[in-house]
Amino acid sequence: MTSPAEDVDVAAARPQPRRGVSFRDAGPPIALVVIFAVFAALSPEFRSVSNVQNIMDTAAVLGVVTCGITFVLMMGSIDLSAPGIMGASAIAVALMVQNNRNDNDLGLLGIAVAILLAAALGCTSGVALVLLKVPSFMTTLGMSAVGLGLATLMFNGVQPNITDAMLESWAVDRLLGFSYLTWIAVGCVIAGYLIQRYTRLGRYAFAIGGAEEVLSLSGVKVAPYKVAVFTLAGAFYGLAGVMVTSQLGAGLVQAGDGYDFSAITAAVVGGTLLTGGRGGILHSAVGVLLIMVLSNGLVQVGVSPYWQGGVQGLIVVAAVAAAVIPQRRRNQVTK
């Protein structure tokens, strides 16, 4: 049974959404449509069916990572552990399914164990956060190093190449024109939205980001929910690590390199605030598509890939500025 405090209505503990659709909510989808239309007009190849399929397939791993990091951002925290956790998960799954290093053939059980390992690392991040009372970016950065160290130990100087037909098929086989990885990412977005919208964990994540003090004063024990959010995020990262292994056909320590920044960029561009309490899974999913459409479009029109990192950085700075200026005008403070 749960106490009355646990069943408190968190609506009073977080900022209430405005009626109707605000520009900040409508802005990212409108931007996605406009950018797609511009590149489609500039490049016939960009608007081809095969290129659209390629965009969706390429966005799959980033979409799963962004699902995990969105829950952390909703609380107003930052998670930099994705690279290490994905690396540990990638090496772990490569060693537990059919591979060139040992005689293991655990199949789906091996995938589940790799995801559980990632969830355990995420849980450790959450426990360290609530016990040590240090900024989340520090605890998660340390956990990323732990994950990379664990992955390096399992790697042991010999790359594990997978020969498991089932895992390889995720990146190769297609359903309705899209790879299985894309459908897995769609499933994660749907699952993430359902958790956000209909579970206590999702509602409290919003409430923690919107007004953690109010939630605590209402009698809710915030710490367990913070740990649960980081555990959930770790599970998403673990699945993403498995997906990268499927794409590459091998487990790599560097499987998650760069995904933390890209996921934060996508979430913020989609409308999820770094300060928490606003946005969500669907917002971040739009952000992922926007980033991938922009990256693909720049290549299609002949812009050097070396410029894409700079463009991505400018976009996230602009998105953050657009999100915080209204709040700063209200509060007249700079955090």
UniProtKB/TrEMBL annotation:
Coiled-coil ranges from the UniProt annotation: none
Metal-binding keyword on record: no
Topology relative to the membrane: Multi-pass membrane protein
InterPro entries in alphabetical order: ABC_transp_permease
Annotated TM spans: 26-43, 55-74, 80-97, 109-131, 137-155, 175-195, 227-246, 258-274, 281-299, 305-325
The keyword Transmembrane helix belongs to this UniProt entry's keyword annotation: yes
Highest taxon above the source species: Bacteria
Protein name (database record): ABC transporter permease
